[in-house]
Write a structure and sequence with these properties.
Elements lengths: L2 H4 L6 E2 L5 E8 L15 E5 L7 H4 L2 H15 L3 E5 L25 H6 L1 H14 L4 E6 L5 H20 L9 E5 L2 H5 L10 E3 L1 H8 L15 H14 L5 E3 L10 H6 L4 E4 L4 H9 L12
The structure holds phosphoenolpyruvate and magnesium ion.
The site of phosphoenolpyruvate has 10 residues, from β3 and α8.
Length: 293
């Protein structure tokens, strides 16, 4: 079908069999927000660790607010998901290298809860950012439901603090990455998450006992296991918004499997958009066969 038939003016994309599909972008450098065009649904993942390069940046609420605010203002009425700092493990933060447990799984939300001052500063910056557009906040590397509850408490406390200082703020929806197998298997227990987004980069490495950039293990071979886990987890999501922002979403090869798993919202690097858009237009979402087959 010609693109004009499958792309409405609001930027809504449809598969060959007419199922609405959302296509969003992942951004690292905040300047990449300029890639947000009318045909893109929004920002499905902003990796805030690219905006916070050191412990000093992590302690600087006003600097973070200025960066996030620019992104939200540029996005206008389109939704933006900013992910809280995903540091630790293979993602170091300058000034925090000496933390002894960094190599042993203290990463993402676990690190934020272990270093609550970093989390509180970012929570305040995000609460203040939410006034400027359609912000949602996403938590990285969530393994257990209580981690969300503890972060939500931090947001509530910091919102009260901002209120006492009479600073404008708003509570954003708080969702989570699904990138730890233990969380994917138990997704129905995450009642306090507002939405879910699959991170296949980490999901793959933790499922395949590999590392994300490993040349030793063929992580592509793990794709069927990853797809099966995603399909099961989507069923456990209880109707909450579900998307995928890992690299698998940007590879047309996996699109039939991801559609069959029930996914209808894909967030990809800006450069991957044309390939994924044409793949979506050519596929039936409610079946895995290509259109016209
Ligand atoms: C992922 O793990 O798939 C993901 C999107 O997060 P990151 O690549 O930043 O670890
Ligand atoms: Mg990840």
């Amino acid at each position: 079908a010609p693109a004009t038939d499958t792309q409405t003016e609001s930027g809504e994309l449809r598969s060959a069999d007419g199922v609405p599909i959302q296509l969003s972008i992942n951004i690292n450098d905040p300047a990449e927000i300029d890639a947000l065009d009318p045909a893109t649904a929004g920002v499905g993942l902003m990796r805030s660790e690219f905006s916070v390069a050191s412990v000093a940046d992590a302690a600087n609420e006003e600097r973070q607010l200025a960066i996030y605010r620019q992104v939200l203002e540029r996005a206008g009425d389109k939704p933006v998901i900013i992910r809280m700092l995903d540091i630790g493990g293979d993602k170091p933060l300058a000034g925090l290298e000496d933390l002894p447990a960094l190599a042993s799984g203290l990463r993402g939300i676990r690190l934020l809860l272990a270093q609550p001052e970093i989390a509180r500063v970012q929570a305040r910056a995000l609460l203040r950012t939410a006034v400027f557009g359609r912000l949602s906040v996403m938590l990285p590397m969530v393994t257990f439901p209580d981690e969300i509850d503890r972060m939500r408490d931090i947001f509530r406390e910091e919102a009260e603090r901002l209120g006492r200082r009479a600073l404008p703020h708003r509570m954003p929806p708080i969702g989570m990455m699904v990138e730890v197998p233990a969380a994917a298997l138990m997704l129905d227990t995450f009642g306090s998450a507002a939405f879910f987004s699959f991170g296949t980069n980490d999901l793959t490495q933790y499922l395949a006992a590999s590392t994300r950039d490993s040349s030793e293990a063929d992580t592509g071979k793990a794709a069927p296991a990853v797809l099966r886990l995603i399909a099961q987890a989507v069923k456990l999501a209880a109707g909450k918004p579900v998307s995928i922002c890992g690299d698998m979403a940007g590879d047309p090869h996996y699109l039939p499997g991801l559609l069959a798993a029930g996914l209808r919202h894909f967030s990809v690097a800006p450069a991957r958009r044309p390939a994924i858009r044409s793949a979506i237009i050519g596929l039936n979402a409610d079946g895995t066969r290509a259109a016209g087959e």
